[in-house]
């Protein structure tokens, strides 16, 4: 076996070069493997709010959005009902019709409610016109003529003690930005 | 010579370690199995995303379901297990789409699909954070699968590492009622199990 100083130096250099390459290659391989998952996680979890207040129009996802009602009612079975009505004025409503829309209500402690499929009877009684409105998404935009606002509504069933409520409206084409409106103080 | 022996031993050791790792490797289904929270009857069992308590588990040979003034009788070659309780989402609105009866011998029975059109069972409901909701689970199982059975509830069976709650019932398998009535209500809870105990 050749154990001349030159051969030993060359072997050592090869060894340390390999180790250094490993330090670079291993994280790079992990990053390449997980990049898709990281992108998915970012799109789902990292979001930037566009804050607006009740009645204030704000440009978002190619339309001018206005939350026209954000009110809390006494619901059935000891729950509270939050009714939100909002509209979007878009130059081309049909273009927004195919974009998924996500409406959520959250409170100060981080709990999050999805809209109920059917409005509570109290909504039907006090705001019958709200029941005629579509939920956010394709149906609402498909039925709207250019130049007219798409009118939408969402109702939520929440515990009466929930406080610090915020309504969020997210169109998937505009993520990570989403609209955020706080419950008005009465 | 010594160097060669050392190399051969190192090679053998590496092969033995690899062989051991290969044969003790957990299955993918084990690695991604649900995260289980367990408990007993009449206790609130908390998983990360939801909480569940069961307060009644009854067994009957015949099930009568009364809806809109009509009664329908469901017989079985086994028995009916009717379980009631309360579920609550903790942080986000969710559905509880999976309910199973796990027998003492390890066999799983899913919720009966014979009552879907007549009565509202757990998977059809939506659970909102902070609003506990009554749940009804009905299983059709062989008589010998009743004693010591466990109710297993999960938001879904499809997601890896999802929550699962297991509640061990106290059913002995000897107290089988001849018949149980599930009556549909117009108000909440949307059913009543009769005769009341």
UniProtKB/TrEMBL annotation, chain A:
Domain of life where this protein originates: Bacteria
Name of the protein in its database record: Uncharacterized protein
Source organism per UniProt: Mesorhizobium muleiense
Automatic annotation (TrEMBL), chain B:
Top-level taxon in the UniProt lineage: Bacteria
Protein name (database record): Uncharacterized protein
């Amino acid at each position: 076996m050749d154990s001349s100083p030159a051969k030993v130096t060359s072997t050592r250099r090869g060894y340390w070069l390999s180790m250094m390459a490993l330090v670079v290659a291993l994280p790079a391989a992990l990053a390449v493997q997980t990049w898709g998952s990281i992108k998915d996680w970012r799109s789902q979890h990292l979001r930037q709010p566009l804050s607006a207040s009740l009645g204030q129009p704000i440009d978002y996802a190619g339309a001018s959005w206005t939350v026209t009602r954000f009110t809390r009612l006494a619901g059935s079975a000891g729950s509270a009902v939050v009714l939100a009505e909002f509209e979007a004025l878009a130059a081309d409503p049909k273009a927004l019709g195919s974009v998924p829309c996500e409406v959520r209500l959250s409170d100060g402690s981080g709990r999050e409610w999805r809209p109920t499929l059917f409005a509570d009877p109290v909504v039907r009684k006090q705001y019958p016109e709200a029941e005629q409105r579509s939920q956010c998404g394709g149906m609402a935009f498909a039925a709207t003529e250019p130049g007219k606002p798409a009118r939408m509504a969402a109702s939520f069933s929440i515990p009466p003690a929930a406080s610090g409520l915020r309504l969020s409206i997210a169109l998937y084409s505009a993520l990570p930005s989403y609209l955020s409106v706080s419950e008005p103080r009465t | 010579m010594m160097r060669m022996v050392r190399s051969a031993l190192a090679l053998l050791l590496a092969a033995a370690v690899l062989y051991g790792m290969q044969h003790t490797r957990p299955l993918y289904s084990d690695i991604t199995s649900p995260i289980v929270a367990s408990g007993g009857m009449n206790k609130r069992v908390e998983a990360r995303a939801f909480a569940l308590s069961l307060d009644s588990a009854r067994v009957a040979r015949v099930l009568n379901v009364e809806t809109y003034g009509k009664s329908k009788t469901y017989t079985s070659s086994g028995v009916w297990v009717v379980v009631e309780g309360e579920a609550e989402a903790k942080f986000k609105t969710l559905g509880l789409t999976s309910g199973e009866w796990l027998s003492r011998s390890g066999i799983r029975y899913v919720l009966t699909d014979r009552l879907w059109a007549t009565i509202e069972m757990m998977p059809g409901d939506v659970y909102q954070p902070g609003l506990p909701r009554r749940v009804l689970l009905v299983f059709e199982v062989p008589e010998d699968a009743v004693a010591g059975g466990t109710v297993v509830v999960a938001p879904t069976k499809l997601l890896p590492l999802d929550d699962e709650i297991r509640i061990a019932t106290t059913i002995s398998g000897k107290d089988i009622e001849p018949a149980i009535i599930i009556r549909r209500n117009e108000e909440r809870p949307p059913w009543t199990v009769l005769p009341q105990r």
